[in-house]
Inverse folding.
């Protein structure tokens, strides 16, 4: 599976989640719009509710790309 498919599945689910990395927090739909095509074609694995990890060339889990977090429900 590629990162684009995983993000599309999350976005289509309507679940209130944020994807977090060392640079910030995003909704899956925002990442679909912002990431390059090359990045979206990255082989990846999703452990639901925990993380999305890259799959390296050897077929093993590599670095964690995003960790799951709950979307804040506080009004702005």
């Amino acid at each position: 599976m590629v990162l684009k498919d995983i993000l599309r599945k999350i976005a289509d689910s309507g679940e209130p989640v944020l994807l977090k990395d060392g640079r910030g927090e995003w909704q899956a739909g925002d990442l679909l719009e912002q990431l390059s095509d090359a990045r979206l074609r990255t082989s990846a694995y999703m452990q639901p509710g925990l993380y999305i990890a890259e799959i390296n060339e050897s077929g093993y889990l590599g670095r964690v790309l995003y960790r799951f977090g709950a979307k804040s429900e506080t009004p702005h």
